[in-house]
Write a structure and sequence with these properties.
The structure is a homodimer.
Chain A: H1 3-14, H2 20-39, H3 49-54, H4 57-66, E1 70-72, E2 93-96, H5 101-104, E3 108-112, H6 119-134, E4 138-141, H7 147-157, E5 162-166, H8 179-188, E6 190-193, H9 203-216, E7 220-222, H10 230-240, E8 245-247, H11 258-266, E9 270-271, H12 275-282, H13 305-313, H14 322-329, H15 333-345, E10 349-352, E11 355-358
Parallel strand pairs in A: 3-4, 3-7, 4-5, 5-6, 7-8, 8-9
Antiparallel strand pairs in A: 1-2, 2-6, 10-11
């Protein structure tokens, strides 16, 4: 192991994510000297003293090795270069699973939402995730209860690639009940963490973790979120990174959709209803364009005005003289005659004994 | 009755709404001469011949009088001047009901949507309408089944003013099943039509009627609309008139909300979830501003960073030495001590025998 890799692993033990003092040192002196300074209780770094005394980086690395986790650092082929867009990238990534991170996450979407979700939200998250991976996009989420788990499961259900970014250490399955889910994710995807093995999940780590989910992906979709959902924090990070954000609407009577509606109203998120619309939003221009659905198209659609007016004047039952059509439409009899002929050609009007009516089943 | 009023009543019998030939004549020669030219089969106006032979304007006026309807024309105090924004305003309005139209419609909102609506949509339309009239806004709709009827009924349920704009003649209750509903609307509001008494509802008249709903109001709300709903036509008219358009979202699994979602996605409509948001959109700037709801506010919200980090490190059960808090937070012991003191003041942290824990019920 290089000194650089060891030092960055040590930083993930010694310093919380986004510690601005450490970020400044790292930028100026590099990881090896930054760790040296922290370990030698340099002036201004005394607050790390207690952690320095407790840290055992070699043990962390051994613990990681035992579960097949590796340390990924900037400069590695596997390093997801999108992370460099962050004001303070993670010191390193602890990673498990076979997915080549940089290439495997290039086409990826974050699907996030409330822990306390509804059946509607869980179904939507699963369908969205399945639709995304089916179209070649990896689904990234946080491994939490609710929408996160539904998104991971939806991706797995169609043998898709999905990635869980954890707030705890890579060796701590959190929540514990999701151990089997995370194991399934590891078969083809990856679990990632920026904190050292053994680290406990803490609120600030969840918030820092959220920025990784936003940064690793081409865009973020919020499926269900009440007004205080942590997933809105992920969406806010994505906005800050100029990544597109989508939100799935729901019943306005459901507080579980209130956060989605709020972000759509504020313009921070684009309303999406399916995977195609998500891909249109996050995909490369042109490559992933998607045509809006329209209603069913009828033969009568797009008729010239005169013919449309004649057609609507015709009865379905009974039949009507040409002069009567002229009264109803205020079209001259000659214009009515021409329109009727054209409608007959289209199979939309029928003449019987000189009287006209609509064809019975004019829809095609 | 003035010649002008009689002539405009006659036009509503002789010519369909938005007939461009008639509009041009009206602009150039006024209503009286336009009617004279149509009745004398002037060159280019032969197509009106059949209607001229059938028309009986005095009979139309007598039929209207019998049901208490009047003819409102431009220049009347009652004429809704917003109609003048239309490329082709109605020739006249046939009006029933006590509402003074111009002043009564100044603060009005169109609430429209699909005939085939869901229970969710009907409930939302009724609640939205009730919320609007409670706040002093009249609710305008088309008197149709589904969302229209729900909106009218919601307004009536709280004794609000509501207005139905009909595609049929003012003396034809259409749909017939809505006779009792329209009678209730007439107690405080109004029914309006731009076509002569006795006129049948026809598809083109519904489309023309939709432009009146959009034009009469300060803005239009679409509650539920499939991709071909006529209410989207009303919304399109409102966009053309530079009136704000709102749409209520729903489950993405419901085709009844697909038209709403499409218009929100396209930017033609603003997502709204309640009457306040509608009023914020259509109301006068400043006068009707509305504050976005936020989630519940907790005492721990907005704590300075150090205190927030200390608070989350504290256990709820058991208690923790100050030094341990320092390890978990990477804050210097002195900073931890200051933060703990402040948290104790706020009632968020408790110290017992020199060890700290979270207060049991820190929420306020």
């Amino acid at each position: 192991m290089t000194d650089e890799r060891w030092a960055r692993a040590a930083l993930s033990r010694l310093a919380e994510p986004c510690d601005t003092t450490v970020a400044a040192l790292l930028e100026r002196f590099g990881a090896v000297e930054t760790v040296d300074r922290i370990r030698s209780h340099a002036p201004g770094l005394e607050r790390f003293g207690a952690r320095v005394r407790e840290a055992n980086v070699d043990q962390d690395l051994a613990n990681a090795r035992r579960i097949g986790a590796r340390v990924v650092i900037p400069g590695d082929d596997a390093w997801p270069t999108r992370l460099d867009d962050l004001p303070i990238p993670p010191w390193c990534l602890w990673a498990r699973g076979p997915l080549p991170l940089e290439s495997g996450l290039r086409r990826s979407v974050a699907v996030v939402g409330a822990r306390m979700c509804t059946e509607y939200g869980a179904r939507l998250a699963a369908e969205l995730a399945a639709g995304l991976v089916t179209r070649g996009w990896a689904v990234v989420s946080g491994g939490a209860f609710g929408i996160d788990a539904a998104a991971h499961r939806g991706a797995l259900a169609v043998d898709g690639v999905t990635v869980a970014v954890l707030a705890s250490g890579i060796d701590r399955m959190y929540p514990a009940a999701h151990g089997p889910l995370l194991e399934r994710i590891l078969e083809r995807g990856a679990c990632l963490s920026e904190t050292a093995p053994g680290s406990a999940p803490m609120k600030s780590r969840f918030l820092h973790r959220n920025r990784l989910i936003a940064a690793l992906t081409a865009g973020t979709v919020v499926v269900e979120a009440d007004l205080r959902s942590g997933s809105l924090n992920t969406a806010r990070h994505a906005v800050g990174l100029a990544r597109p954000v989508a939100a799935v609407p729901g019943p306005v009577t459901s507080m579980s959709s209130a956060g989605c509606h709020q972000r759509i109203r504020s313009g921070e998120a684009v309303l999406v209803t399916n995977a195609e619309e998500v891909i249109e939003l996050v995909g490369e221009m042109g490559v992933d364009a998607y045509e809006e659905p329209s209603g069913p198209v009828f033969a009568a659609d797009g008729l010239p005005s005169a013919e449309a007016r004649v057609l609507e004047a015709l009865p379905v039952r009974g039949a009507m003289e040409l002069d009567r059509v002229s009264v109803l439409t205020t079209l001259a009899p000659l214009a009515v005659r021409a329109a009727l002929a054209r409608l007959e050609d289209l199979g939309l009007a029928v003449v019987e004994e000189g009287r006209w009516r609509k064809a019975r089943a004019p829809r095609v």
